[in-house]
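Researcher: Sequence recovery benchmark, item below. Answer with residues only.
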């Protein structure tokens, strides 16, 4: 197969880039080793930032009417016996959207299929190599048949286990990483919402997050040992742990139909390009889930690369391709910092001293009692405007 842009990974970043490029008349081929069912069935975070929603609406992936039904205008922090609400429109003029990220993915795949360019699922890439006519993706399909995609550019949007990263950095695992001594135990439960807005809670027991999917399905998490066995707790113990984080609401219980343990990691690659091969999204960086920045940050990379590739095909100028790494890394580090800050402010490390805990509560008061502190949290949460959004 010959194309202009070969995109590794049919996740939200790869699909959105393909969609934007097509609107500019640029051909691309998106491939993914997983099946469409696998991709659409993966459980993901629930929050979309306002600027990410604008991108989806502006490019006709979804309608404005549809997304407005999912708008949330605030979240609560619970700590030290206090509940503090962040009023997003008052603080920032914007809201966020409880638009579950696997639903985003389904809508993006639908848009690709409607445009007549279905991603190539079950095409497992093995590596990226230099071909005689630009970079090449080589791999095997579900039948075990070899395939090659030869392109002007290859984009690695293939997640934290990226194979494109090996081409770019010469090493699958280099980069800057931060480990965390805790993770999340997450459940999906069949029950009505327990709270109208999301609750982020920090108590002596640790972190709890009460989120939602819709009127019938709820998503909740509690802080856990990242190595714990998902079957090590009973449903009763799960409810006790969740309820311990929220004294203001009686959690509405129901059948728990999915349980998972999420490991946390911060990870940033500062080398995002080699020759005509670029990295974006989780292939380039990973954030811990607190604040749900992952997909939203990936969209920033998408917009930078979209601008760069469009300019290249329009005028032949490589100016924005050359500046991609520097352009993208600024927001990557801001989101990395924000996710780190939200995570460390709300979780209790197993080795936390009394000093650490008192300081943490003071930090929470500093971010909730003053308008400046509230605005800082709210601006990061609803999402900074994308700089490359043209
Ligand atoms: C969800 C996940 C998050 O990481 C977050 O900050 C908010 C919501 C969720 O899965 O609903």
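Model:
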């Amino acid at each position: 197969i010959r194309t202009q842009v070969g995109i590794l990974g049919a996740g939200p970043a790869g699909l959105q880039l393909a969609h934007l490029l097509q609107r500019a008349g640029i051909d691309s081929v998106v491939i993914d080793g997983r099946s469409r069912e696998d991709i659409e069935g993966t459980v993901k975070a629930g929050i979309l930032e306002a600027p990410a929603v604008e991108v989806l609406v502006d490019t006709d992936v979804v309608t404005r009417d549809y997304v407005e039904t999912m708008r949330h205008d605030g979240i609560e922090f619970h700590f030290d016996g206090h509940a503090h609400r962040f009023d997003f429109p008052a603080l920032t003029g914007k809201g966020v959207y409880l638009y579950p990220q696997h639903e985003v993915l389904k809508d993006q795949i639908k848009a690709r299929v409607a445009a007549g360019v279905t991603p190539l699922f079950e095409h497992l890439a093995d590596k990226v190599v230099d071909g005689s006519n630009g970079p090449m993706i080589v791999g095997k399909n579900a039948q075990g048949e070899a395939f090659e995609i030869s392109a002007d550019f290859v984009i690695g949007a293939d997640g934290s286990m990226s194979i494109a990263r090996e081409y770019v950095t010469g090493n699958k695992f280099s980069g800057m990483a931060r480990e965390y001594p805790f993770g999340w135990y997450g459940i999906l439960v069949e029950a009505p919402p327990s709270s109208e807005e999301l609750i982020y809670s920090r108590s002596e027991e640790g972190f709890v997050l009460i989120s939602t999917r819709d009127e019938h399905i709820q998503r909740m998490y509690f802080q856990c040992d990242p190595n714990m066995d998902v079957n090590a707790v009973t449903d009763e113990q799960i409810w006790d742990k969740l309820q311990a984080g929220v004294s203001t609401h009686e959690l509405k219980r129901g059948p728990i139909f999915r349980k998972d343990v999420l490991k946390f990691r911060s990870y940033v690659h500062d080398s995002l390009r080699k020759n005509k091969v670029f990295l974006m999204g989780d292939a380039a960086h990973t954030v811990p889930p607190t604040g749900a920045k992952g997909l939203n940050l990936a969209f920033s990379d998408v917009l930078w690369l979209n601008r760069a590739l469009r300019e290249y095909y329009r005028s032949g100028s490589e100016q924005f391709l050359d500046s991609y790494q520097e352009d993208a890394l600024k927001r990557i580090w801001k989101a990395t910092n924000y996710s780190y800050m939200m995570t460390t402010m709300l979780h209790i490390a197993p080795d936390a001293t009394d000093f650490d805990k008192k300081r943490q509560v003071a930090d929470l008061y500093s971010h909730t009692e003053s308008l400046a502190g509230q605005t800082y949290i709210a601006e990061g949460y609803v999402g900074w405007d994308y700089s490359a959004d043209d």
